[in-house]
From TrEMBL:
Active site: 347
Highest classification ranks of the organism: Bacteria, Bacillati, Bacillota, Tissierellia, Tissierellales
Free-text cofactor note: Binds 1 zinc ion per subunit.
GO molecular function, one term: metalloendopeptidase activity
Start and end residues of each AAA+ ATPase domain: 119-255
Organism name: Anaerosalibacter bizertensis
UniProtKB keywords: ATP-binding, Cell membrane, Hydrolase, Membrane, Metal-binding, Metalloprotease, Nucleotide-binding, Protease, Transmembrane, Transmembrane helix, Zinc
Protein name, per record: ATP-dependent zinc metalloprotease FtsH
Recorded family membership: In the C-terminal section; belongs to the peptidase M41 family.
Residue positions binding ATP: 127-134
Amino acid sequence: MRKKKIILLITILSVIFSSLLFYDKYFSTSGFEKITNADRFIVWIVTIIFVVYYIKLDSDPQLAPLALSSDKEGNKKNNNKPDVSFKNVAGLEEIKEELKETIDFINNSHKYTKMGAKIPKGILFHGPPGTGKTLLAKAVAGETNSTFLYASGSEFVEKYVGVGAKRVRSMFEKAKKDAPSIIFIDEIDAIGARRNLDSNNEKDQTLNQLLSEMDGFNTSETVVVIGATNRLDLLDEALLRPGRFDRHIYVGNPNIKARKKILEVHTKNKPLHNGVSIEDIANKTHGLSGAQLANIANEAAIIAVRKNKSKVDCEDFNQAIERVLAGLEIKNPSILLKEKKTVSIHEAGHALVSKILKTDMVQKISIVPRGQALGYVLKFPEEERYLLTEKELMGKITGLLAGRAAEQVIFNEITTGAKDDLTKATQIAQEMVCSYGMSTLGNISIDEYYIKNNYDIIRREMKKIIDKCFENALKIVEDNKIILFHISDLLMKQETITSEELDKIFQEYKTDLDYAT
């Protein structure tokens, strides 16, 4: 921008001076007697050059060349060596152990070449979002002091034919030039999706270029491609074969030990109250990803600042968990008393059935509106589980339908408040029928094509499961109306009930729970 202003100033001065010389040529003026015709000619030529140069500088380039010219600029920006190492990655010990072999190959390649071993050309991270796939890729680059080239899959998708393929070529050329290097392609399913007759020609060209580049590495070039995706099932088979992405590593949500380590990393720079237990927070955050845990730690610190506290305490973390899981609290809700009573019965139904069936540990019940929900029940399992029985899955569906069952028993009608519960219950029922073989269809796994063409059969099986669970929920609520009203009345009085307060309520009615054990 500064260069353009300087050229403009020089051009203006040249034009003014040339104009004066032109005027003096035909109308003699004092002060220009010593200037010859040759001098005038030189000044005019220089002025024309500056005018033409400024016009070219000011003109806008065409769209296609602009898209192509951005490749080099992008590569310059991406050409960095991250300062992230495995010390910054918490809770992924098994994956880090697996990646150390690749790191050792890059750092000490002569050991492997002596044995005739070849470096893995590609590593594919797949799993749910927010689990640390990008962080792992940066850590590999940091551990090997390699150049880290980052690209998103969507950056290669263009409306101009050949642009995507060119960007792939230029990125790999840059990686080979700056080897050892790590190419990280995030959301690789944007360009690596399975090819078919209906697919886009430009996208296919980009994928073909990526396949040929990954195949064309020389053994002397230390370049590793790392891809990340949430949808492994969408990727083309040619991309997944050995020789391209040799290793597929699943990066899932952390277990309790991993959650503890992740929380320790994200709270080490925060002043914590002595009463804060990282282990308790890890217990309360079952099923959350690393990104969500980082968000909880950050939200807790923000809440503490909002309340003018000098340290982050347990209450701040509890509110942060609710904020992340249930949404933003609505401060001044305009809810009718009748609706509030309905919500209290609904949430009391969830808590009652979940407590009796012991499917999950009820952490908190609330009828304070958050996000789009008028009330909620925070639950988490008492212990880390990897396998669930058919009975336990039925119990989870029963707990989800218990809110609607309570409305049916108490008010003899149902409301729209069970929308989210029905969605989750239907999803579990579908997995039981299609994935787990827990229906009268037998021990089979059903793919998407069969579901699409035989939906009526599958729907009937799902309905059997859901109807059976709903009947069970109705029975439990009917048999324990006293406890239901006790929970509901306490909710109406103080709006929230903790797990300890719920335990006290149930201790008063021990004899009524014998059938549930």
